[in-house]
Design a protein that fits this description.
- The chain has helices spanning about 1-40, 40-50, 60-75, 85-110, 120-150, 160-170, 180-210, 215-245, 255-270, 270-275, 280-314.
- By secondary structure, it is an all-alpha fold.
- It starts with a helix and ends with a helix.
- The model is unreliable at about 1-10 (pLDDT under 50).
Length: about 325
């Protein structure tokens, strides 16, 4: 009995170190994954936001025209306008989302008694939703700043700090959380279904191929499916949050989620209004989410190898 207790005490510090390493690895991998994915699709993302917050008709031709005219008028790098704000938001957001997802998986796994095996379907969905809620709540003002920068000219907002100062001074601090309710309502199915689909694809792949680790191109495909399903399920709420976030610079006023939806439907129609830009998301979303999940997994593997190599050398 004494030997068992002694062994338990000896292994606890090791487990603590491993736990801390796992958290740090998840934070680093998530941050890099988010940065790579968002930078890849930044021009399409900016174009999507501009269409979401305006009443102009959406089509692939109009998107191409908008991107081309923006390039002609403001220069090549203007296509990435707002991407610095995106990086400020997405690096902590992705780090927190992926890290909290790993932690929620462990907590739910110990509760369900899976012992490292994939979670059952409902806890798998719950882990993704909880991760999305955690990251969104902690980083939301940065998302609002990024939306404002994407739909305005340089003259209005010079940099990220300038956006914060002007919003706080002209519209009040509570404006920094404008559109928070539809964002949270949207992130529950989006993050839940995204992580659920990706984890389910990996589980089915392992069962079918008897390979523990999918190839990178397979991870990209799983992530693309996850992005397609997650973004399609939550898209109308994404449009609503963008309208509420940018109301201050669009000379509009929205009092709530239902009222915003009513205004959009009344002025632009249900499909053309609430699903404006969705077809672009079917291109952008799978690329971004696939890149994000793949980068995260590969970074996790790389960091584990580096740590294992360092341990062996010592």
């Amino acid at each position: 009995m004494e030997n068992v207790a002694k062994k338990s005490l000896e292994t606890t510090p090791i487990q603590d170190v491993r736990g801390r390493r796992h958290i740090i690895n998840s934070l680093i991998s998530g941050a890099i994954a988010g940065a790579v994915a968002k930078t890849t699709v930044a021009p399409l993302d900016r174009a999507k936001i501009i269409f979401q917050v305006s009443s102009r008709g959406f089509s692939a031709k109009e998107v191409a025209k908008l991107i081309y005219h923006t390039y002609q008028k403001e220069g090549f790098f203007s296509l990435w306008r707002g991407n610095s704000a995106t990086m400020v938001r997405v690096v902590p957001y992705a780090a927190l989302q992926f890290c909290s997802h790993e932690q929620y998986k462990q907590i739910l796994g110990s509760y369900c008694g899976t012992h490292g095996r994939p979670l059952p379907p409902l806890p798998r969905l719950l882990a993704g939703s909880m991760a999305g809620i955690t990251a969104t709540t902690l980083t939301y003002p940065l998302d609002l700043v990024r939306a404002r920068m994407a739909v305005t000219q340089k003259e209005m907002y010079g940099n990220i700090l300038h956006v914060f100062i002007r919003i706080s001074r002209d519209e009040g601090l509570k404006t920094l959380y404008s559109g928070f309710s539809p964002t949270i309502l949207g992130v529950i199915p989006y993050a839940g279904l995204s992580f659920f689909t990706y984890e389910t694809c990996k589980k089915l792949h392992a069962e079918y191929t008897e390979r523990s680790y999918p190839y990178p191109h397979e991870r990209l495909l799983f992530g693309a499916c996850a992005g397609l399903i997650g973004q399609s399920a939550s898209y109308p709420l994404d449009v609503v949050r963008r309208r509420m976030q940018t109301a201050g610079v669009q000379c509009r006023k929205y009092t709530g989620i239902v009222e915003t939806m009513r205004q959009i439907v009344a002025e632009e129609g249900s499909i053309s209004g609430l699903y404006k830009g969705l077809s672009m998301n079917w291109l952008k979303g799978p690329i971004a989410v696939g890149t994000s999940f793949t980068t995260f997994d590969l970074m996790q593997i790389l960091l584990r190898k580096i740590q294992d190599h360092g341990t062996l050398q010592r």
